[in-house]
């Protein structure tokens, strides 16, 4: 059981090989004259009227999911159409792959969605980065773009809503981490501040860094300090020395410690390098020994 969006943006339920659209309090088969119905009952979705349109068709469900994934990636990424199509096709079974639209047709779908949604092309320089109004506010119409230094040499962007800052103001320990995987080619990393909210660890501040210099970390925490009155007592970081120095410059009384997950990752890399060096040394030793004996 899962949900997707139709081509018109409406919710659809995928259940037991059938597709349903919402009909008030129940879900009805997408086939107009079919009596198939499903509803939410006892914490799960169940079919309560049988279908007369067809037998369950897994290939059609895979095709619907494929079309949905292509549309979603077209809106949410700057990937080339061929990459979007190739990555999405890899999830299909061989039978379902025969039923999907041709490559050229899928490419036109991606191009049309980006044209209709007015999705900008990926910027080449910091000067090309323009934050449109719909990305400066949350869906609740709160201001989301907290800071933009507009420096075309080292652009720094910070995102956080008032509600997120209020949550951060109630926390005495902050958890900070950076990742390069989701940052665009222009930015060095996305750096986030997390904390526990109602029993769940949630990201409260997002920032895009042009580099990992200490001055950039100081600039981030200086802006945060202007909007969050409470000073944190504890902080965990990902063993980035410039982050430690930058945070310590703004919050000298705070106890800073390293993230255990990052420590495990670093330890794993160091162990791997150690074993690789050991194996190389062993092989070199064996080769030298054989050469000596042969001479």
Automatic annotation (TrEMBL):
It comes from the Eukaryota. InterPro entries: MULE_transposase_dom. Residues 195-263 form the MULE transposase domain. Signal peptide: none annotated. Gene3D superfamilies: 2.20.25.240. This is MULE transposase domain-containing protein.
């Amino acid at each position: 059981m899962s949900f997707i969006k139709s081509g018109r943006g409406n919710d659809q339920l995928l259940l037991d090989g059938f597709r349903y659209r919402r009909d008030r309090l129940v879900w009805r088969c997408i086939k107009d004259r079919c009596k198939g119905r499903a509803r939410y009952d006892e914490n799960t979705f169940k079919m309560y009227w049988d279908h007369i349109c067809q037998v369950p068709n897994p290939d059609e469900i895979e095709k619907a999911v494929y079309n949905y994934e292509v549309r979603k990636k077209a809106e949410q990424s700057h990937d080339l159409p061929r990459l979007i199509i190739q990555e999405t096709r890899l999830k299909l079974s061989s039978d379902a792959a025969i039923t999907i639209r041709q490559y050229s047709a899928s490419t036109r779908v991606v191009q049309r969605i980006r044209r209709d949604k007015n999705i900008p092309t990926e910027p080449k320089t910091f000067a090309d980065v323009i934050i449109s109004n719909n990305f400066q506010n949350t869906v609740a119409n709160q201001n989301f773009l907290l800071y933009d230094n507009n420096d075309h040499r080292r652009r720094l962007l910070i995102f956080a809503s008032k509600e997120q800052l209020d949550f951060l103001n109630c926390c005495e320990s902050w958890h900070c981490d950076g990742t390069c995987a989701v940052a665009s080619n222009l930015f060095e990393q996305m750096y986030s501040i997390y904390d526990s909210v109602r029993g769940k660890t949630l990201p409260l501040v997002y920032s895009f860094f042009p580099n990992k210099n200490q001055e950039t970390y100081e600039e981030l925490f200086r802006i945060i300090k202007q909007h969050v009155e409470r000073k944190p007592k504890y902080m965990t970081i990902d063993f980035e020395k410039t982050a430690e120095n930058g945070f310590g410059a703004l919050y000298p009384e705070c106890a800073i410690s390293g993230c255990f997950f990052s420590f495990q990752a670093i330890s794993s890399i160091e162990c791997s390098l150690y074993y690789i060096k050991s194996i190389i040394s062993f092989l070199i030793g064996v080769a030298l020994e054989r050469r000596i004996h042969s001479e």
